[in-house]
Design brief:
The complex is a heterodimer of chains A (379) and B (242). Helices cover 52% and strands 18% of the residues of chain A. Chain A has 379 residues and is α+β, with helices and mostly antiparallel strands. In chain A, a hairpin with a 2-residue loop joins β6 (162-165) and β7 (168-177). Chain A is elongated, with a radius of gyration of 29 Å. Chain B is α/β, with parallel strands linked by helices and 242 residues long. Bound molecules: adenosine-5'-diphosphate and magnesium ion.
């Protein structure tokens, strides 16, 4: 009977299109908007993708990557002495203001790297040599930084050009590509010692320690060992990523916006799909009543409606996710707005869309169950 | 009168009452109906509009609950059965033919006819084979893959008859099967139904107020105001039939 149920639905082109379209729209709305929120949240973890290390050692009260509390300079050596640690390097992260040609100031995220190893170096060098960052007053700036700091100049900043960073002269020796920070700051890299000179003197200057597990150690085990031996907090890359995202989820308005979108998608989907499906059942009530008269049980009729409803659900969901993925590829290729589509998002949307379908089918099922088979004899 | 008409009872109805609505709006549609249909006969229920013919047909077919009395259809006591078993009874033993044909317009003729078999759990392949064969038998060879809406009214009613018979039910129920058709087409449909009734273990009950087709009945039950008034035919009055 199920193939006939599908044929009945397919035979009603307008409603069929409406149902698939409505569910596609709801899927897109929910998946795409959530992906944008997750993308925004991912921006909060730009430190991780821009410095890249297996283990991140921070102050024991730090819960997320953008709220670092200074460590003592000696803490690097304490991490190095932990069994299970192959190496550990210091990082200094600070927000400093750069002066523009027009006299205005723009904040930049300055990252100071270990002088010898340059661990935490920019992910992709576009121009210049990474090693030149060891030269005095040198800096590697990301594309966004070049764009921002070029404002008011006749010609965009290039290699060898200088600008004022916190009243000190900084020379651009490289241009890199880096992920954007949540607050919109460009990234600039220098050596650790150089960064200390750019920044005003403070008592404690070490922001975090990047470390690598020793051979035979997993990052998790080494991180645990660091915590045990130093009392500092050590995250694996993955742990810090999710800890950061969780922090923003808990401490910002993002979840509210997020939930509103889900609710909106749910309402749109339920309204369109529920109403259309109900109308479909209503118009076919005579035929469904005839089936009932011919001995189709309530269970069989319910299963037929479920097959119809879930078929349009699968279709609408599939098309919706496909379109969102395509959208994501375009957006990611252009590197523009935030977009992140972890598998949990389509999975959650899937569950919601199936819920909508179940609800729509239920409306129809109740209606069909109430039908007296004797209506087929009435004109 | 056919020799095949037996006196074994197919349907046995005693003192059946049915009232629609309650209180001031109550409409007593059946006021104690006594009625029998025999195996191997085509029995007509006739009477003025609103006298309760369709209601009687509905309770016999098990599609409508009734308030009092007893109905026995081929050994199934409908008055004592649970709804689930009545559904089962309809599925196995009842074939339906409606005034408006009630074919599903989005399905092909073969698919429409295969429905009772599918409901009975027959596989799709076998059901469609049997449906096609039944359509041939009804004089519609080669039309099986068309939509019913492409056929004439008479042809659609043939499809409906094929659907009513495909699972070989013992009771075939027809409500005004010819009133949407012209005289000749209606005559052909009645010829078909008479042939259907020539089966020793089957009974065909036709509700109609179309006096042009009275002559096709083996017996004729006349209803008036919720009661059976007279039975014409074998063992009864022949005036209306002849
Ligand atoms: N579902 C219903 N609700 C209320 N009254 C009904 C219903 N069905 C039939 N009736 C009433 O019951 C009476 C018998 O109807 P029906 O059996 O359809 O008569 P017939 O088929 O002989 O024209 C009529 O008065 C009709 O108005
Ligand atoms: Mg009637």
């Amino acid at each position: 009977m199920y193939h006939l149920a599908l044929k009945m639905l397919l035979g009603d082109r307008a409603k069929y299109a409406m149902l698939v379209g409505g569910l596609t729209f709801a899927t897109m709305l929910m998946t795409q908007q959530s992906a944008v929120f997750f993308g925004l949240l991912k921006w909060t973890t730009s430190h991780l993708s821009n410095m890249r290390a297996k283990i991140w050692v921070v102050d024991r009260n730090v819960q997320q990557a953008n709220e670092l509390k200074a460590l003592r300079d000696t803490d690097v050596n304490r991490v190095r002495s932990v069994t299970g640690v192959a190496w550990a390097m210091p990082i200094y992260v600070t927000i400093q203001s750069a002066k523009l040609a027009d006299g205005n100031f723009k904040p930049i995220m300055l990252v100071g790297l270990d002088n010898t190893t340059l661990v935490g170096r920019p992910p992709i060098m576009l121009r210049g040599q990474l090693e030149d960052v060891r030269l005095p007053n040198s800096i590697i700036l990301d594309e966004l930084g070049i764009q921002r700091l070029s404002v008011g100049r006749a010609k965009p900043l290039g290699l060898g050009d200088t600008f004022e960073l916190n009243d000190k002269e900084a020379r651009i020796v490289g241009i890199c590509r880096a992920d954007r920070h949540f607050f919109g700051y460009p990234y600039a890299y220098s050596t650790y010692t150089q960064a200390l000179q750019f920044a005003p003197k403070q008592r404690k200057m070490l922001s975090l320690v990047l470390a690598e597990p020793a051979p035979g150690w997993t990052a998790e085990a080494a991180a645990k060992q660091i915590q045990l031996e130093t009392g500092m907090k050590a995250y694996t890359e993955d742990e810090l990523f999710w800890s950061t995202i969780r922090w923003y989820f808990r401490n910002t308005g993002i979840p509210v916006a997020f939930v509103s979108i889900i609710v909106l998608g749910f309402i749109v989907g339920t309204t369109i799909s529920g109403q259309t499906f109900y109308a479909f059942v209503h118009e076919n009530l005579r035929h469904l009543g005839a089936l009932k008269a011919m001995g189709a049980s309530n269970g069989l009729l319910a299963r037929m409606l479920l097959v119809q409803s879930f078929t349009v659900g699968f279709l609408g969901y599939g098309i919706g996710v496909l379109l969102v993925t395509l959208f994501g590829q375009v957006v990611l290729a252009r590197g523009d707005p935030p977009f992140m589509l972890p598998w949990q998002l389509p999975a959650a949307t899937f569950a919601i869309v199936m819920g909508i379908c179940a609800f729509s089918a239920l409306l129809g099922i109740v209606k069909v169950w109430k039908v007296e088979p004797a209506i087929v004899f009435r004109g | 009168m056919s020799a095949a008409t037996s006196t074994k009872l197919a349907v046995h109805v005693r003192a059946v009452t049915k009232t629609f609505g309650t209180g001031e709006a109550a409409v007593p549609a059946l006021k104690g109906v006594d009625f029998d249909a025999r195996q191997g006969e085509l029995l007509m229920i006739v009477g003025p509009s609103g006298c309760g013919k369709t209601t009687l047909l509905s309770v016999i077919a098990g599609t409508l609950n009734f308030d009092g009395g007893e109905i026995d259809v081929f050994g199934s006591p409908l008055h004592a059965m649970k709804p689930r078993h009545i559904t089962e009874f309809r599925k196995r033993h009842v074939g339906f033919i409606f005034q408006q044909f009630n074919l599903i317009p989005t399905l092909s003729c073969i698919e429409n006819v295969s429905v009772p078999l599918l409901i009975n759990g027959v596989s799709r392949r076998v059901a469609e084979q049997k449906a096609a064969a039944m359509l041939d038998q009804m004089g519609l060879p080669g039309r099986g893959h068309e939509r019913p809406t492409n056929l004439s009214g008479g042809q659609q009613q043939r499809v409906a008859i094929a659907r009513a018979l495909v699972h070989e039910p013992r009771l075939v129920i027809c409500d005004e099967p010819t009133s949407a058709l012209d005289k000749d087409t209606g005559g052909h449909i009645m010829d078909l139904l008479c042939a259907v009734a020539r089966h020793p273990e089957r009974s065909v009950i036709v509700v109609t107020h179309d006096n042009r087709i009275f002559k096709y009945a083996d017996r004729l039950t006349e209803m008036e105001d919720g009661r059976v008034q007279r039975v014409h035919g074998q063992g009864g009055n022949h005036d209306l039939i002849e």
